[in-house]
Amino acid sequence: MTSVSIPRRMKGVQIKNFGDAEVLQYKTDLPVGVPGHGEVLVKNEFIGINYVDVYWRRGMMGIPPNGIIGREAEGTVVSTGAGDVNSLKVGDRVVWLAMGGYAEYTIVPASLAYPVPADIKPGVAAAALLQGLFAMSLSHKIVQVKEGNWALVHAAAGGVGLWLCQLLKALGAKTIGTASTAEKMKLAVENGADYVINYEEEKDLVKTIEEVTGGYGVDVVYDGIGKDQTQNNVNVVAKHGTIVTYGAASGFPAPISHATLTAKNIRFVGPAESALMRNIGGGFEKWCAKLFDTIANDKINVVIHDTYSLSEIVRAHKDLEARKTTGKVLAKP
Ligand SMILES: NC(=O)c1ccc[n+]([C@@H]2O[C@H](COP(=O)([O-])OP(=O)(O)OC[C@H]3O[C@@H](n4cnc5c(N)ncnc54)[C@H](OP(=O)(O)O)[C@@H]3O)[C@@H](O)[C@H]2O)c1
């Protein structure tokens, strides 16, 4: 077995209080843990930053273990715990989906670490895992989108948004994206959106979507924005359609009454990736294999906005919240 020297202290970001980006404290003396039964210790090289980290930081998701947030990273296994570790061994390059990613080292359940295929470029696995798996589950499982379906994707140039645009294109759906700038609109079109609307400038989003769809509306709405779009979503969804709300970048979505649902026989779904990843058909490994197969066959362009230093985590969060980013945000310890 290869032996790797593991320091006792590491760089990382800790939060002691919930709040704005300034609560993220960069430290260089956090303890490095020892993996327990069924766990591995990973030396992270690329850390995925997701909008959901903002909710954790604000205290909307619970208390992170050790005060360290971050749902995913890519790196190398440096130590394995006792018991079944899914055949992982020291030196394996993996990407993982668990908790505690804003650090140089993270202990993760071996069942949620997946070997990165050799043909995947460095950083791409960390950029793709959470947003890619989530977008795949939204388009293939939560709603099984069919050829010819109309889809509305809010924040189409964001991380999940660009994945959805590309996956929906591959499924033969017709996608209307929304975005806040001309640059973001262009990016959404380059990555599969058929139409894009600047929802900061468009006075009547509903009317425009009605015109684009010939009065039909959309079969599915994908919304990570929440409050600002709740009413528009109800108005544009077609009869028997589905509103999928999975985020609250503008605030929690307003309640939708039973009468509103029954008026058009619509479904309102609120999936969470933490539950999905454990329950998606075939499990985590099968979906990871599918994810990397999709990327390797050049079916998906994994757009990386920037790779920040972990010491610049406050700036990374501020940029994300100020809507300055597109695609994926990464950090390096
Ligand atoms: N439920 C789950 O398990 C799950 C899993 C993954 C992601 N999500 C959610 O999915 C959404 C997208 O995640 P992501 O990581 O891919 O982020 P992202 O889309 O890359 O970033 C958020 C985007 O939302 C748009 N936005 C609209 N109103 C906003 C506001 N008031 N404040 C901030 N941003 C606003 C911005 O795009 P424009 O400038 O174009 O408006 C911004 O770039 C987030 O809400 C996230 O929490 C949920």
The helix-and-strand class reads alpha/beta
Low-confidence stretches: none
Cα(first) to Cα(last) distance is 26 Å
Which value, in Å, is the CA radius of gyration?
20 Å
Mean pLDDT: 95
Count of helical stretches = 10
Please report which band the strand proportion falls in: under 5%, 5-15%, 15-25%, 25-35%, 35-45% or over 45%: 25-35%
- CATH homologous superfamily assignment of the largest domain: Medium-chain alcohol dehydrogenases, catalytic domain
Tell me the series of helices and strands, N- to C-terminal: EEEHEEEEHEHEHEHEHEHEHHEHE
Number of strands: 15
Q: In the residues, how many domains can be counted?
A: 2
What is the CATH first-level class name of the largest domain?
Answer: Alpha Beta
Strand count, sense and barrel status of the largest sheet are: 7 strands, mixed
Could you estimate the helical fraction of the residues in percent?
25-40%
Bound ions, cofactors and other small molecules, one mention each: NADP nicotinamide-adenine-dinucleotide phosphate
What oligomeric state do these chains adopt? single chain
CATH topology of the largest domain: Quinone Oxidoreductase, Chain A, domain 1
- From the 3D coordinates, which CATH architecture of the largest domain would you assign? Alpha-Beta Complex
General shape: globular
Structure, described:
This protein has helices spanning 51-58, 124-142, 159-171, 182-190, 205-212, 230-236, 258-264, 273-279, 283-296, 313-321, and strands at residues 9-15, 24-31, 39-49, 72-80, 93-97, 105-109, 113-115, 150-153, 174-179, 195-198, 218-223, 237-245, 267-269, 304-309, 328-332. The chain has 333 residues and is of the alpha/beta class. The relative contact order is 0.15. The mean pLDDT is 95. Bound molecules: NADP nicotinamide-adenine-dinucleotide phosphate (NAP). NADP nicotinamide-adenine-dinucleotide phosphate is lined by residues 50-52, 131, 134, 155, 157-161, 179-180, 184, 224-225, 246-247, 249-250, 271-273, 321, 323, 325. Residues 19-331 form the Enoyl reductase (ER) domain. One of its GO terms (molecular function) is mRNA 3'-UTR AU-rich region binding. This is Enoyl reductase (ER) domain-containing protein.
